[in-house]
Amino acid sequence: MGLRQRKDLVLGVLELCLSPQPEPDGMEEDQPIYIAVKGVVFDVTSGKEFYGRGAPYNALTGKDSTRGVAKMSLDPADLTHDTTGLTAKELESLDDVFTKVYKAKYPIVGYTARRILNEDGSPNLDFKPEDQPHFDLKDEF
């Protein structure tokens, strides 16, 4: 399941639910390509040569690949949001790539549900995009 099909990922403030539409993972030529890192969903379509069909980082798309980005790994076991057990160096690398690659180059199109929903699925009333470490008004609107 990809970003469009997973119940636990969110685009903007709209929950992405099961859909007959193709996943935004670069496998369909006319569809956007999304990747989530640190709970932030980026549109990486402009980097199709890196993230599109057959491209080196296509495995990262259509899901939250935070762990894979931190470890510089394309191992399917690492293509998850879970950062448990990452080393300080891996966490530093994650922050560096998040800021200097994803945030600098690609538009933010949403947030994962883990960022804006409570575990029971109810809205997290404490979530405010402006309080997020990546927030920049010009990037958001």
From TrEMBL:
<keyword id="KW-0408">Iron</keyword>
<keyword id="KW-0256">Endoplasmic reticulum</keyword>
<dbReference type="InterPro" id="IPR036400">
    <property type="entry name" value="Cyt_B5-like_heme/steroid_sf"/>
</dbReference>
<comment type="similarity">
    <text>Belongs to the cytochrome b5 family. MAPR subfamily.</text>
</comment>
<feature type="compositionally biased region" description="Basic and acidic residues">
    <location>
        <begin position="127"/>
        <end position="141"/>
    </location>
</feature>
<feature type="domain" description="Cytochrome b5 heme-binding">
    <location>
        <begin position="22"/>
        <end position="113"/>
    </location>
</feature>
<keyword id="KW-0479">Metal-binding</keyword>
<dbReference type="InterPro" id="IPR050577">
    <property type="entry name" value="MAPR/NEUFC/NENF-like"/>
</dbReference>
<dbReference type="InterPro" id="IPR001199">
    <property type="entry name" value="Cyt_B5-like_heme/steroid-bd"/>
</dbReference>
<dbReference type="Pfam" id="PF00173">
    <property type="entry name" value="Cyt-b5"/>
</dbReference>
<keyword id="KW-0349">Heme</keyword>
<protein>
    <submittedName>
        <fullName>Neudesin</fullName>
    </submittedName>
</protein>
<feature type="region of interest" description="Disordered">
    <location>
        <begin position="120"/>
        <end position="141"/>
    </location>
</feature>
